[in-house]
Amino acid sequence: MATSQAAPRAFFDPWAHLPGGPALRAACEAGDIPAALSLTRALSAHDDVASALWNIAEHGLHPDQRAGYTLAVEAADDGTPLGRTLTGVRYVTVGWSIRTRQRAEHVSPAQFEQFFDWLRRAERVLFDVCAEHPGFAPAWEVRITTARGLQLGHGEARRRYDRLVALEPAVFAAQRVFLQQILPKWGGSWEEASRFVEECASVAAPGSLGPALVADHAIERWLDGERSVPSATVDRMRSAAAATVLHPEHTWTAATAVAHTNFALFFSIAKHPADAWPHFDALDRSPVEGLWNYYAARPASAYDAAQRNAAAAVARRRGRRS
Amino acid sequence: MTGQVQVRELFARRPGTTEGGLLFRVGYADETLPTSGITSLVVALALRAAERPGLDVGASVGPVVTEVRVTGTPDRVRTTLRDVALALSDLPVRHRATEARALAERAGEVVPVPLWRFGHQGYGLGPGRYLGLHRVTDGDLRAWARERFTAADAVVWSRGEEALGPEVPLPGAPAGSAARSAPAVPEAAWSLPAEAHAGGTSVIWDAVVPAVPAAPVLAEVARRALFQSLRHDRGWTYDVAASAGLLDGRHAAFRLSAGLRQETADQATGEFLDTWGRLRHAVPDEELAVARAHLLLTFDEPRQEAVWVREDALLTVLGRPVPTPAERRAALEAVTADDVVGLARQAWDTGLLVTPVREGWAGTSVVPRGAGEPVEGRSFARLDADAAVVIGQDGATLRVGAARTTVRFADAAAVVAYPDGGRLLVGLDGTEIPFEPTLHDDLTVSDVATLVDDRVSSELVIPVPRERAPERPDRAAIEQRRRSRAARRAAENGRSRLSRVEVVRLIAALALIPGLLVAVGGVAVCAGGLVLTLVAWIDVGPQPWGLPVLLAAVGGASGVLTWLCWRGLDRLRVGIRF
């Protein structure tokens, strides 16, 4: 009898909210990247495709089995735009794992050298995909990240974002990635970031995720030390949630879960736990990492505590009403 | 001139003014760095001898061909070409200083892309590089004119109403001599495409492709695509250029460029590369048709023989087959989209990218220079920077920060020698290593003479004037460099450098740890004492009150101390990474 030992599920399960997530995870854990690619090919929403690609590249295998994973991804590269893009994404994740998420001043020159080396490899692959298939949106999405890593400038990152928008007008993952580019920590400014958040909100179709970007922006400000959250920001966040993830016309994608978890985080740090509850509740028993790992050294317990706090606040509110 | 080669002559009849020229199979690729500029100066001196007021005459020096061109009446053209030839056979050098200065002033800003591809040799030497003129003597100039501007190396061409039958008394060459073949175009020793930090304010793609009819078509297709995206759609550039220029007759120098504006330089570079990169995969038929139609316009001109006579002369002097105008046209018409796409791939795979902004574009790396094994020898620290030069038996290494570049004396293109004793060792690959006695405490002028001058061929030494040596840095600057050097060394040794505040914190933490241990011990001992007193009170009977009161007081104080030490350590742990 064949025995298989299931890998222990992480607290934040990156596959949980992805359509066909369990099958994708199973394929990756079995090292069957071609199967994972064909499952990804079946996804229709661009945010789901982007999420699947980054998941396969980053969380594809149990940590104990990761040696040789890059080779496995390369071997599965079937020359299709999707296969090549996955190879590029894998290179990006390898590079970023060497660089770590620390701020630049805590990264050594040797780490940077290797990081740039992997990103150049990724950019070569993705550049070719975009040259040969200019209409293939997922590659443009990844190229926004390579532009940031290679420090090709805000103008270039914006150009790539615009190329993507011309193909797919509302990719929340891309909006989040470009927002990172123009934050002060990557050489941008809060004003520039605010303008972009406004822009994403103003061009969004009803129920689409554009206005939810304000949560990323507010959390980043909080993380940067701006600890007092004005009530106007809280009101704005409520209406952003109502216009996006809580909107009746909203279609659920993997990015919805990210938006929910970030709304939950925002309302938790803004000390409005009752407002956080609908978002915790929407994620049910499958927490999503979002920006929680930037918020706390132990994001899982922070998430747990905030979720309990939100549930208690809602219970108290109900108690008062009854 | 019996027994000697006669100059080859091409003539095509057409109405109007007469135009004629001399083409020589010599160019800057035939020079070396210590002779760089010699061809240009020879031509300038010869032209000076032939110039007259109002004469429409010009000259240019290319990589392998030098050209003199004149327009006017048949007599004027005939006389001018004769005078140039006469001057070349007996070069007047009296005004060399004036002409050399004029060359330098006219050189302008040239982005030295060929230098990055070929180094300080052959095709990497031009255009506009005149360093060698500091070294070449009058004798060298006259000898270069005599040896490289012979009848065998020349072709004279003209178009006009009457054949010139020009008398071109160039230096003779023995019968049977032919034009020298052009220097071979070497392949790059590193992986391409790559980036070249050649400066300028444009984004440039420079490549070497076979000289085939598809080359001008590709250049035109690329020019139109770049113009559409960068100029029309985005407005990020004012000028887009594309060319497939002459190299050795077998290869063409393919170049695309677009001027950048500072505020949009990033995105313009990205768009330039994406637009150009796409042509490696597809060239739409309609774009090919438009580009080809543009190139075919020349064939609508009457008197096709006259249109092409100069190009024919160029091929002749390079020893290449000369097609008829009809054959040229047919070759252009036969170019397919697949030909253009295939050539675009070659142009990509041999490409050098120049952009003044950022690096890592399209995943490329910068061309490696001075990358050889560092030499071992005497090390001389620089006073003005965290840098040092190491001079060994067979080369020198420059360390700036943690980066090291090396030039082996055997691979030196030249040594620039300043009158104050400073030297600049220039490697064939473009690496430069300065030896400036004023910028070192321990490197003297005589050290430089012994360790550098004596180890390179005297033919490579170019004496270059300069007004003064670099100024020795002041004491504050020297101290600043010393500190940055110490910081780098600490970082290289894998230790993170602690700031003064962190050192204080570390000492405080080390003092608090024994304090905490003592305080915890105090609490434990006092608690134990109290328990024993209680046991004795139960077992034996009433005990004196003094001891338990003392134990309680000391225990309480120890408890407070424990809490303080713990809080202190907790606070101090911030900022210190154990």
TrEMBL record, chain A:
This is DUF4034 domain-containing protein. It comes from Promicromonospora thailandica.
Automatic annotation (TrEMBL), chain B:
Residues 218-293 form the Peptidase M16 C-terminal domain. InterPro entries: Metalloenz_LuxS/M16, Peptidase_M16_C. GO terms for molecular function: metal ion binding. It comes from the Bacteria. Pfam families: Peptidase_M16_C. The keyword Transport does not apply. Residues 471-490 are annotated as: Disordered. Residues 471-481 have a biased composition (Basic and acidic residues). Keywords: Membrane, Transmembrane, Transmembrane helix. The chain crosses the membrane at residues 506-538, 544-566. This is Zn-dependent peptidase. It comes from Promicromonospora thailandica.
